[in-house]
Amino acid sequence: QRLLVMDDDAAGTYANMVTGTNAANRQIVALANSTTYGGAGGTYATASGANALSSLIMPHEIGHSLGGLQDEYNYYQRGVPGGAYTGGEPDSIHHTLLTEQQMRAQHAKWWRWLGTESTSGGVIGRYEGGMYDTTGVWRPSEHSMMKTLGYGYDQVERERMTQAISGKLNLVQDNTPT
Fold first, then answer.
1. Contact in structure between 108 and 98 (CB atoms under 8 Å)
2. What is the pTM (predicted TM-score) of this model?
3. Running DSSP on this structure, what letter comes out for residue 112?
4. Element (DSSP H or E) covering residue 133
5. Is the CB of residue 31 less than 8 Å from the CB of residue 47?
6. Which is nearest to 143 in space by CA: 94, 54, 89, 72?
């Protein structure tokens, strides 16, 4: 009911009409003419443009489509707790099975941010739940945009989004060696 999708081929065709853009240097975002809460973050990001929460939904969905970020929900259906995570170490940069000590020792996941004040509130650490599971997997912050609308990206997500945006731009256009 809340999943908004679009014709990816049509979106690409229209986006290709914009001079100077291509798939490598753009991010397609579609707003639906709807008041129904919803969105999606696949190849392209979508949100319902007339919903009061759209301005909070869109950055979350762009986190998926541009940054490759995963949901940090500890449930799959609202009001129904998720199960226990049973897989191996997640590929996600912001989910782990590692302890804080293991992250530091291995320079893994969000080790360099551990103990710092989170840009989404609280402290960067190890908080249980994510990827639709309630137990057995950990995320870096208590709250973030990928878990709860109304919060910002935490440092781990912000770093990934900065990498993703930087990858689409020619940030250094000229330099003079010293």
1. yes
2. 0.89
3. G
4. strand 133-139
5. yes
6. 72
The label of the residue with tokens 């969000």 reads: 110
Q: Residue 42's pLDDT is what?
A: 87
Residue type (1 letter), 26: R
49 residue type, one letter? G
**Can you spell out the DSSP letters for 27-86?**
--EEEES--S--EEESSSEEEETTSTTHHHHHHHHHHHHTT-PPP--SEEETTEE--B--
Q: Are 156 and 93 in contact (CB under 8 A)?
A: yes
Phi, psi of 165 (to 5 degrees): -65, -45
Give the Cα separation of 25 and 73 in Å (integer). Answer: 30
* DSSP symbol at 92: S
pLDDT in tens, 58-85: 999 999 999 999 999 999 888 888 999 9
Q: Are strands 45-48 and 29-32 parallel, antiparallel or unpaired?
A: parallel
Q: How far is CA 26 from CA 3, 29, 109, 157, in A?
A: 23, 10, 27, 19
